[in-house]
């Protein structure tokens, strides 16, 4: 199941169901996920035929394709962006200080919001894409429009080759920083690379001073995405993880900064939580992006040594 291999099948199917807004009651039987509904099975896990899972993946990919369409309505784009973040109408309404009924009207194209810039910021999508639609407004680091299933494995091979082509274009007198900048410019300005990245199940990002191909899964991880601290604390955590070489040093810096802000120990993560986060991100990088990213780094270094 491509980038979802680290999930149990039950978690994966449940994630697809939630993303597609399918009601839970009767879902497994109606989706054909239980081969023999009348047959008792040992344990609690049902049988999940691959054919039925493939149908769910196809529905996710149809929604991803809508992200790139220039013919969608504002309401459709709003619902797509909302679903990719795992929000419902009540959560959007609460964040923007409006009624849930008003948000429902946005999604049904009954009423167009007067706070489109704020809505785009909340949903983490480009304002022009939310206003007009179309793939040309989706940047290389867009989290919407990624594919799932076998499709992204095929595109990942193509993305690998396309990135090699960019490396081969490097000027003769380039050094490592210039090579990195050249590749970064290509990734963020070329339509074909952004297009391929979404189909490969991820997006291009600059983390610190390094360009990375990062997976983005439009399905919430069970329990792993929960956090009990503010966006301000999250920003502090990200900064200190970039600045410090060890998790302990990063955590001590986070702790000091949070205490200086008058925050209690319940308002920032414990050391063990930060270790778990790093381990999760390391595992994800090894599973999804390490080959492509190592290839970029190795190619840049090799090119610089020979020129």
Describe this structure as you would to a colleague.
This protein is mostly helical and 307 residues long. A hairpin with a 2-residue loop joins strand 1 (202-207) and strand 2 (210-215). The chain has 14 helices and 2 strands; from the N terminus they run H-H-H-H-H-H-H-H-H-H-H-E-E-H-H-H. The protein starts with 8 loop residues before the first helix and ends with a helix. A two-stranded antiparallel ribbon has the order 1-2. Mean pLDDT is 77; it is low at 1-6, 221-227 and 287-291. Among the domains are: 74-137, Orthogonal Bundle (434 Repressor (Amino-terminal Domain)); 231-268, no CATH class. GO terms for molecular function: DNA binding.
CATH topology of one domain: 434 Repressor (Amino-terminal Domain)
**Could you estimate the helical fraction of the residues in percent?**
55-70%
Query: What's the CATH C level of one domain?
Result: Mainly Alpha
Distance from first to last alpha carbon:
41 Å
Outline:
It is built from 14 helices and 2 strands, in the order αααααααααααββααα. With 307 residues, it is mostly helical. It has a two-stranded antiparallel sheet with strand order 1-2.
Keywords:
307 residues; Diguanylate phosphodiesterase; 14 helices; DNA binding; 4% strand; Cro/C1-type_HTH; Lambda_DNA-bd_dom_sf; mainly alpha; 434 Repressor (Amino-terminal Domain)
């Amino acid at each position: 199941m491509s980038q979802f291999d680290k999930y149990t099948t039950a978690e994966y199917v449940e994630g697809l169901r939630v993303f597609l807004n399918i009601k839970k009651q009767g879902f497994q039987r109606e989706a054909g996920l239980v081969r023999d509904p009348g047959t008792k099975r040992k344990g609690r896990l049902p049988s999940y035929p691959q054919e039925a899972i493939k149908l769910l993946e196809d529905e996710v990919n149809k929604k991803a394709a809508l992200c790139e369409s220039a013919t969608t309505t504002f309401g459709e784009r709003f619902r797509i962006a909302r679903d990719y973040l795992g929000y419902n109408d009540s959560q959007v309404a609460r964040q923007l200080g409006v009624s849930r009924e008003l948000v429902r009207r946005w999604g049904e194209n009954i009423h167009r919001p007067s706070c489109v810039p704020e809505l785009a910021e909340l949903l983490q999508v480009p304002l022009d894409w939310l206003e007009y639609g179309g793939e040309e407004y989706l940047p290389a680091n867009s989290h919407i429009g990624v594919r799932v299933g076998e499709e992204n494995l095929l595109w990942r091979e193509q993305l690998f080759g396309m990135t090699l082509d960019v490396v081969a274009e490097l000027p003769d007198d380039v050094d490592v920083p210039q090579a990195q900048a050249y590749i970064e410019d290509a990734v963020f300005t070329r339509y074909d690379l952004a297009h391929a990245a979404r189909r490969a199940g991820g997006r291009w990002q600059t983390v610190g001073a390094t360009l990375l191909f990062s997976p983005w899964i439009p399905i919430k991880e069970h329990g792993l995405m929960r956090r009990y601290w503010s966006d301000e604390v999250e920003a502090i955590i990200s900064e200190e993880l970039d600045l410090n070489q060890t998790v302990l040093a990063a955590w001590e810096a986070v702790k000091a900064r949070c205490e200086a802000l008058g925050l209690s120990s319940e308002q920032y993560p414990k050391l063990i939580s930060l270790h778990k986060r790093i381990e999760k991100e390391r595992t994800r990088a090894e599973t999804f992006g390490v080959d492509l990213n190592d290839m970029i780094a190795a190619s840049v270094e090799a090119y610089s040594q020979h020129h």
